[in-house]
Amino acid sequence: MIRKHFAGFVASALAMAVTAQAFAGTVTTDGADIVVKTKGGLEVATTDKEFSFKLGGRIQADYSRFDGFYTNNGNTADAGYFRRAYLELGGVMYTDWAYQIAYDFSHNSGGDNRSEDGYFDEASLAYNGFKPVSIKFGRFDPEFGLEKATSSKWVTAQERTAAYDLVDWTNSHNGGLGIQASGNAGDSLYGSVGAFAKDATNQDKDGDSTKQFNLRGVFAPMHEAGNVLHFGINYAQRDLSDTAFDGRIRSRLGMRGVSTDGGQDAGTNGNRLTLGGQNNTPAGAYDTDQAWGLEAAWAMGPFSVQGEYIKREVEADSAAFSDIKADGYYGQLAYTITGEARGYKLGKFDSIKPSNKQIGAWEVFYRYDHLSVDDDNGAFANVSDIEGKVHNVGLNWYANESIKLSGVYVKAKVDNAQNAAGDDSGDGFVMRAQYVF
Predict the structure, then answer these.
(1) Which CATH class is domain 49-436?
(2) What percentage of the chain carries pLDDT values higher than 70?
């Protein structure tokens, strides 16, 4: 029902926009003059910048084929799905207040078990009257890591690093609400701190939601496109005392098609790597779940290199359980053949804007992901650390500022784990068509 009303609102907004363009005439206001922009969506703003309204979105359509460890029987399977299908509404009101609403029709950008009818990926309100500090509250993702801070529209590889799968709770709102304060000192220092209450999938025995705390700090002495030196640190903690939860640490190893949240996937033949933990972890088994992260990046002209290191520890609260420890990292190299530099601002990378409108911008990249879990509980008690290693080699074509076509070859290798057919490695490729408006 929510989706029906929201779609109706969007259709009405688009109809008004089309009507406004179809029938030329005089527009009058009872206040400041209005500026209308149609490049990259529809944006309406007053010249005094007191009010604004922007309607936009993104569509990412993926197709992939994969085999080996990525399937239970080792044979080739494929998947076609919308990775993201966002409709976004945002703007400013009364100068100091900002709002952002993002509705995902694809059912594929959040965690497992989202409503099949789509959901609100963000619905937030921010107060910016204490500049340079901004206070935001509502539903939005916590901040943890450079790749997560960078919009999904402009991350280099189609999927963010597999190392994030070790700490998937750190940068997902999981249907809950939060409050966050963020600020900057010029363009070289940025920080944020937030507190979040997660949804009903993780509750203690009294029905109290899981509470989470996030902290991120960035120092970027060089912070212009094509001239970047970036360092960052992250910390996140959640309270699991007296909480029953799904404690599995799993990874798709860069191949979303093995198990999508919405759309075609490999079905029962899709195989995800389980590195540790267990489903239906009983209340009282664990206490504090902590994650740390370090990030670094350097860019010079069309060349960039970046990496992150992540460490997690789930502290046991019962003599029947032992601590679970995990760590992961990635390193990435990227080069724009046509010479353009990646954009950068306030602790995150931004888009590549083609300088040649005829051929667009062409980018090649390589990324290596590594993740490992040490779990001495249950089925993992007599198994050495389970590790996943993923190589990603890809090509991005930024046809213009709205359209991006991508292709990536992915090769995965796991240690101390196999699929049902005895495979411990797998290959695949993913193609994406993206439209941003």
Answers:
(1) mainly beta
(2) 89
Better-scored residue on pLDDT, 292 or 1: 292
- How is residue 15 annotated by DSSP? H
Q: How far apart are the first and last CA of the chain?
A: 26
Going from the C-alpha of 292 to that of each of 108, 199, 233, 347, 375, the distances in angstroms are 26, 23, 8, 17, 18
Say which residue the tokens 């009058």 belong to: 28
Element (H, E) at 215: strand 211-224
Token pair for 128: 């910016």
Q: Which one, of 256, 252, 250, lies nearest residue 373 by Cα?
A: 250
Please tell me the distance from the alpha carbon of residue 94 to that of residue 54, in angstroms, as a whole number.
15
Which tokens go with 207? 């029905």
Measure the CA–CA gap between 372 and 327, rounded to whole angstroms.
6
Give domain limits for the chain. 49-436
Structure tokens at 317: 């609260």
Q: How far is CA 227 from the centre of its chain?
A: 25
Provide the token pair at 234. Answer: 């992250």
CA 59 to CA 81: how far, in whole Å? Answer: 11
pLDDT per position as a tens digit, 299-317: 999 999 999 999 999 999 9
Q: What is the Cα–Cα distance from 208 to 201, expressed in whole angstroms? A: 11
Distance CA 392, CA 369 (A): 8
Task: Quote the pTM value.
Answer: 0.89
Q: How far apart are CA 218 and CA 188, in angstroms?
A: 8
∠ CA 155-159-163, rounded to 5°:
100
The tens digit of pLDDT for each residue in 44-70 reads 888 888 999 999 999 999 999 999 999
Q: Closest Cα partner for 225 from 348, 363, 341, 347?
A: 341
Contact predicate 182/128, CB 8 Å: no
CB atoms within 10 A of CB 362: 19
Higher local confidence (pLDDT), 13 or 345: 345
Beta carbons within 10 angstroms of residue 132's beta carbon:
12
CB of 373 within 8 A of CB of 324?
yes
